[in-house]
Design goal:
By secondary structure, the protein is of the alpha/beta class. It contains 13 helices and 24 strands.
């Protein structure tokens, strides 16, 4: 079998792989991208994008239910047509996935669909519909992504047990849903289905939901979950389940003894694992860190000509981190002096209200022994938040006390996912508090809260009392 040769092969067309391939094409590198299933990756097709489409639908439902506060009145039953919602979600993902293919083609990147496995460090065999194909390259980028972790006794092959992919494709709204795992995916999905009308129970082993987040944020989310009717069981371990006459009975252990809940579906969201075990990596000799591939700041592995990006490497498993990795690698392959030296990777949780962080959270800074200043402004003090009737939450700016440099921002509240980008720039540029405070922010907007919080850290806030 003769092998086709390329300057670069990108293994995987997810949020890391396809931007990498596009940038390689722009840089004039003869590139092939190999994808086994989803052009655009899990994120675009069965993850980030479809989940946000459903989350938006759930939020709209809730907004309509409470629109009377603004004088909006309507008669008749408000209901969700799940078939039409799923069809709309599919049009969104379909457009984006098609756009990925168009962009790859437009940047002269070749595409191959199939399951690829390494034969050697720079050679792969791809099983395609037309049969096996051999390909080689001077540079190979591993962008194989990740998949949900399956726990013993809860097989995703069972119709009652859902991973995030299956949960996003349900043909009906479950009357009762249990969620194992109170992290960001579990709370996003659980909150969404609660808004659509499901009875939701969250089972979390830790002593709080969203482990690792600022307790001030968690308190607010806890309150909203309870208000919405979501049942949360903390310090609880799922033991197993059995089929009954009225659904699936999930058993779990708590400090108060063994308990159970009967539901229609059980969603397991206890994390993700890299797909590094699916491409015969051992034939490359690459150095591993457990299941993850070790890389340096240029995303180079221990094997010359072999690179790894995104979820299959150590670090945060986030789509935007993978995209940045991919663009850095493309520059490196083209011979440019590029490095992944980002000071922060923002994190966003699409609960209600949304959560977003950049840089250090307050507890992290204090745990590191840093002497800090903190400015905190509630959304209830921001005029624009009042006009949208979304006032829960706050903006918190953390700065080094000696230099006034911004080291972190935490936002929980309306449109936190959109507001956090200003904070990312502030941390990357090592802005001082007054760089934000003296930048005129438009009024009335939610972004004024970031300016006000920066001033509050200096004791110069106007619209809240200074501490």
């Amino acid at each position: 079998m003769s092998a086709s040769h390329y300057q670069a092969i990108v293994l995987g067309a997810g949020p890391g792989g396809y931007p990498c391939a596009i940038r390689l094409g722009q840089l004039g590198i003869k590139t092939l991208v190999v994808e086994r299933e989803y052009w655009g990756g899990v994120c675009l097709n069965v993850g980030c994008i479809p989940s946000k489409a459903l989350i938006t639908a759930g939020k709209r439902m809730e907004e309509f239910q409470h629109a009377g506060a603004m004088g909006i009145e309507f008669t008749g039953e408000l209901k969700m047509n799940m078939t039409r919602l799923q069809a709309w979600k599919s049009t969104v993902t379909g457009k984006l996935s098609g756009g990925v293919r168009t962009l790859l083609k437009g940047n002269k990147v070749e595409m191959m669909e199939g399951n690829a496995r390494f034969v050697g460090p720079n050679e792969l065999e791809v099983t395609t519909k037309e049969g096996p194909k051999r390909i080689t390259a001077d540079h190979v980028v591993i962008a194989t992504g990740s998949r949900p972790i399956e726990i013993p006794g809860f097989s995703f092959k069972d119709a009652r047990i859902l991973d995030s992919t299956k949960a996003l494709a349900l043909p009906e709204i479950p009357k009762r849903l249990a969620v194992i795992g109170g992290g960001y995916i579990g709370l996003e999905m659980g909150s969404m289905y609660r808004k659509l009308g499901s009875e939701v129970t969250v089972i979390e082993m830790a002593d709080q939901v969203l482990p690792g987040f600022d307790p001030d944020v968690v308190k607010l989310i806890d309150r909203r979950l309870k208000k919405s009717g979501v049942t949360v069981q903390l310090k609880a371990q799922a033991l197993g389940w059995e089929e009954g006459d009225d659904g699936a009975t999930l058993k779990y252990r708590t400090p108060d003894g063994e308990k159970s809940v009967t539901v229609d579906y059980i969603l397991v969201t206890v994390g993700r694992r890299p797909n590094t075990d699916q491409v015969d990596l051992e034939k490359t000799g690459v150095k591993m860190a457990g299941r993850f591939i070790e890389t340096d700041k240029q995303l180079k592995t221990s094997v010359p000509g072999l690179y790894a990006i995104g979820d299959c490497t150590t670090g945060l498993m986030l789509a935007h981190k993978a995209t940045h990795d991919g663009e850095v690698v493309a520059e490196v392959i083209a011979g440019h002096k590029a490095y992944n030296d980002a000071k922060t990777v923002p994190a966003v949780v699409f609960t209600d209200p949304e959560i977003a962080t950049a840089g250090l959270q307050e507890p992290e800074a204090r745990a590191a022994g840093m002497d800090i200043k903190v400015g905190k402004v509630p959304f209830a003090a921001i005029g624009r938040a009042l006009t949208t009737n979304e006032t829960d939450g706050f903006i918190k700016v953390i700065a080094d006390k000696a230099t006034n440099r911004v080291i972190g921002v935490t936002i929980v509240g309306p449109h936190a996912s959109d507001l956090i980008s200003e904070a990312v720039l502030a941390v990357e540029m090592e802005c001082e508090l007054m760089d934000i405070g003296l930048s005129i922010h438009p009024h009335p907007t939610l972004s004024e809260g970031i300016m006000e919080a920066a001033k509050a850290a200096l004791g110069e806030a106007i619209h809240v009392l200074n501490a």
